[in-house]
Design brief:
This protein is of the alpha+beta class and 339 residues long. It contains 5 helices and 18 strands. The strands form 4 sheets. Strands 11, 12, 13, 14, 15, 16, 17 and 18 form an 8-stranded antiparallel β-sheet that branches. A 4-stranded antiparallel β-sheet has the order 5-6-7-8, with no helix packed on it. A 3-stranded antiparallel β-sheet has the order 1-10-9, with no helix packed on it.
Length: 339
């Protein structure tokens, strides 16, 4: 790829994101077979062994074939399809059929990674210890909120921070989402407040938006209404909490860094109004449109990895870009390097 970053830059980007939790699969898609996945350029395999979700490098220690092609043995072990090498849930090889009369070599093991389950997703941390918890989505277990089904979008050709910034950047609403999230007669930026709160960056603002009653199948008035957003951001996740006349509407949007130029997008929505599940289709269709409008713009952005703030290759302007400046500065402080 001609415009790809240098190999050293890609490797540094991967190292910077390794200590964080990333979703790599929808739990309901996991059956009784191993499933291949990819994270930060690394092939992985997910499998349930003894009822516990496990994640390994998708490479058999013998001759390097994909363990995701293998099979479960009594629900306890994962057997490679090539020569039958069999692994337990710690990644240790427990059977080599070709030499059952000899001890198994100590190095006959595959690397196992931390894995957990949350919000209908399988999460993996490639680092030895996690730098932060799984990003919060408190509305998921809040009975006051109705949740729409999980959305998993095809991979975007963009880096994960670029995808998050696409949702964090509110001043593109009138131009990319005119009539839905913005109005070109009001392109002025809102008054942002940006601050750190625990393991998140918080951005809050109030702005005028079209009254999108059409989401729930009602008539569109064409009027503008005042809404307040509070965005809770991690390096790869943004939780947008929108408070308006109807109530509180939440979009929880996480970007899984498959590679430096490929990102899976998983999305949940929650609302404390219009609780009829029969109306979910309108909300899902609306968000699908927003994603389809954002995607070509974000995928077109270069360079692939964010250039350092000090380079001024991206010409941020205040006050409109204050949340983006704060986000990128925070990434640099976290040790997630740029090109």
């Amino acid at each position: 790829m001609i415009d790809a970053p240098a190999a050293e830059a890609i490797a540094a980007y991967y190292r910077g994101l390794e200590p964080f939790w990333h979703p790599i699969a929808v739990l309901s898609d996991l059956g009784d077979k191993p499933q291949a996945a990819r994270l930060l350029g690394r092939p992985l395999v997910l499998v349930r062994l003894e009822g516990q979700l496990c994640c390994f490098d998708d490479v058999c220690r013998h001759l390097g074939s994909a363990l995701s092609l293998g099979e479960l043995v009594d629900g306890r072990h994962l057997r490679c399809a090539y020569h039958g090498w069999t692994y337990d849930r710690s990644g240790r090889c427990v059977d080599i059929p070709a030499r059952r009369d000899a001890p198994i070599p100590r190095d006959a093991r595959v690397r196992a990674y931390q894995v957990t389950e949350a919000y209908g997703l399988a999460w993996v941390c490639l680092g030895e210890t996690a730098a932060a918890a799984v990003p919060e989505f408190p509305e998921y277990d809040d009975s006051r909120f109705h949740k729409t089904p999980l959305r998993a979008y095809p991979p975007w050709r963009a880096s994960a921070p670029r995808v998050v910034m696409g949702a964090l950047d509110d001043t593109h609403f009138p131009w990319v989402h005119e009539g839905l999230l913005g109005d070109r007669s009001h392109p002025e930026p809102p008054d942002h407040k940006v601050y750190r709160e625990g393991e998140t960056l918080v951005s809050t603002y109030t702005m005028l938006q079209p009254a999108n009653a059409s989401i729930s199948g009602q008539d569109v008035s064409g009027e503008l209404e005042s809404v307040t957003y509070t965005n809770y951001v991690t390096p790869t996740t943004i939780r947008l909490v929108k408070e308006g006349p109807a109530g509180t509407y939440v979009v929880w949007h996480t970007a899984s860094p498959v590679a430096f130029d490929q990102t899976m997008v998983y999305l949940h929505m929650a609302r404390d109004f219009d609780l009829d599940a029969d109306h979910d289709r309108g909300y899902l269709d609306f968000e699908d449109v927003i994603q389809s409008q954002d995607r070509p713009v974000v995928e077109s952005q270069r360079p692939w990895l964010l250039p350092p703030l000090s380079s001024r290759l991206l010409l941020y302007v205040r006050p409109a870009d204050l949340p983006l400046i704060a986000f990128q500065k925070w990434l640099e402080e976290l040790g997630i390097p740029q090109i």
